[in-house]
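Changelog note: in this version the structure field was regenerated for every chain. One regenerated record is shown below for reference.
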Amino acid sequence: MPEIRSADTVRARRDGVTPGDDYLGARTIVFEIDVEGTIAEQEALLTDLSAAFAPGPTTTLQLRWGGNPAEYVLHGRPRGCEWMLSRRSTVGLGDARCVFLATDPIKYGGEQTVRSTLAGSVVPLTLPFTLPATLGTKSGNDVTVANTGSTPVDWTATIVGPVTTPRLRCLTTGKHLQFDLDLGSGEELTLDSSAAFAAVDDVAALGALLFGSSWGKAPVGNSTWRLDAGAGTGYADITYRPGWL
């Protein structure tokens, strides 16, 4: 079967490590690395590179340097490391050719987290209204998700109780997720837009997702997000990385 690009989540496709099919297009990235030091030091470093790039399941590769952005993160699978020692006898350098298979075409920047905290009095429901509706709503502070890249990106969020019927909104896109559940003090509702998955303390909670909810990505540029709830004093941490194509 030829490589096929789709918008599905990243899953390993017959790589010999993880079962299942991955229908995302892939891009091979080759790193040619000069290794300095004594012969013993070079062999130790080359051994570490071989271990880091040994064929394995989906992971992240972090590239850091001075500049803006100062970090890129790639999602994919390491495919191997080849030693090339022909220059060792002439210039005293060891060489490594490391291969990484990027299954996500997006290059991600540094991780960012913003927090919306419930505060203030309950805002009463006014007529007319549309269903589903929460009788009285507490609103958290507006926060800005700054995707300084060139493409919309997925995000994760953690809503921490106490909170009743939490609703996480992106006011910029109009999309929201609302759940018919009560979180006790310290209980956590985790959200992952890439997998369209929700869980309370590691137990799936998609059954509590209310009608009208929809998943969406963080758009390019600044977007405004907010946590609302029927009651409570909890908060939501929204985590994302700017993305470039």
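Spot check on this record: The chain has two helices and 20 strands. Helices lie at 39-52, 88-91.
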